[in-house]
Structures are given as structure tokens and as C-alpha cells.
Design goal:
The protein is mostly helical. It has one domain (about 5-85). Helices cover about 70% and strands about 0% of the residues. It is built from 3 helices and no strands. The mean pLDDT is about 75.
């Protein structure tokens, strides 16, 4: 899959994941594309682990099932980013 398709998939997956995920995530369009693209790789890797039994670093394709897997991966990426970037004011 070429880089333009990855950016389109990342934008769509990141936008949908930010709409689904509760709370305010912040970040602009570049953060959305980045988290969506990372989510496509996370989702594709988890999908290959569940279906093939091996962990492969792979992105999903630009299709409806690929978008679904990328959105799930983007939600996981947003959750992990929230854990890393959390402010602890104690």
C-alpha cells in the first residue's frame, strides 16, 4: 500500500477512533493521522497474530474490513498514548 493510501487510512481511522473514544484527546489533524496510521499497524499486527498465529508488523489495506481493524488499532493507540502522556499532578 502506498504512502498516500496510508495517510488516507490513518486520517479516517484516527478521526473515527477519536469520535468513538470517550473524553477529549486534543491534537490536530497531524496527531489524528499519526495515531490512525499507528493504529493501522497495531490493528494489522494484532489481526495477523489472531488469524495466522504469528506476530507480523503489517498495516491493513484501504478497504472496509481494513478500516475496521485500523479503527480498533487506533483506539488502542489512543488509549496507550493517554497512559504515556497523562499528567499526574500529585
Amino acid at each position: 500500500m502506498n504512502i498516500i493510501a496510508w495517510l488516507i487510512l490513518g486520517l479516517l481511522a484516527g478521526y473515527i477512533a477519536k469520535a468513538i473514544y470517550p473524553g477529549h484527546q486534543g491534537g490536530g489533524i497531524f496527531a489524528t493521522i499519526f495515531l490512525g496510521t499507528v493504529g493501522a499497524f497495531v490493528g494489522g499486527s494484532l489481526y495477523s497474530l489472531l488469524t495466522l498465529g504469528t506476530l507480523q508488523v503489517a498495516a491493513t489495506s484501504l478497504s472496509i474490513p481494513g478500516l475496521f481493524v485500523a479503527v480498533i488499532g487506533s483506539i488502542i493507540a489512543i488509549f496507550l498514548w493517554g497512559l504515556i502522556a497523562r499528567n499526574t499532578n500529585v
